[in-house]
Amino acid sequence: MAMARRAGSRSKNESVLTRSVNKVFGFLKSAEFEILFVLFFVIAFLIFKDLMIKIVGSC
User: Fold this and answer.
1) I want to staple 18 with a disulfide (CB 3.0 to 4.6 A). Which of 8, 14, 23, 42 is the partner?
2) What 8-state DSSP symbol labels residue 14?
3) pLDDT at res. 50
4) What is d(CA 26, CA 18) in angstroms, rounded to the nearest whole number?
5) Does residue 48 fall inside a structural domain?
6) CA end-to-end span of the chain
7) Buried (b) or exposed (e) across 37-59, using 16+ Cβ within 10 A?
8) Rounded Cα gap, residues 56 and 50, in angstroms
9) Residue 45: inside a domain, yes or no?
10) Where would you find the membrane-spanning parts of this chain (predicted)?
């Protein structure tokens, strides 16, 4: 019980910016797989698009 009370009081002493940055990092940590999954497909699409432009453009 004392641990929860201490963590709660620490949160009140933190600035709004610190709390918002911590929430953003918490979200990124929980959504890490989904972000990497989408990033992989975006990079693969860009590489494939460039390859297709070079192949089709040379004809």
Assistant:
1) 14
2) S
3) 85
4) 12
5) yes
6) 73
7) eeeeeeeeeeeeeeeeeeeeeee
8) 10
9) yes
10) 27-48
Q: Is residue 28 within 8 Å of 35, Cβ to Cβ?
A: yes
The residue behind tokens 């009140």 is 12
The stretch 49-56 carries a mean pLDDT of 82
> Domain limits at 37?
31-59
pTM of the model: 0.50
Residue 34 CA, chain-centre distance (Å), reads: 8
In this structure, what token pair is assigned to residue 9?
A: 């009081």
Q: Please give the tally of structural domains in the chain.
A: 1
Confidence at residue 1, expressed as pLDDT on a 0 to 100 scale: 47
Q: Would you say how long the chain is, in residues?
A: 59
Evaluated on CA atoms 43, 47, 49, 50, the torsion sign reads: positive
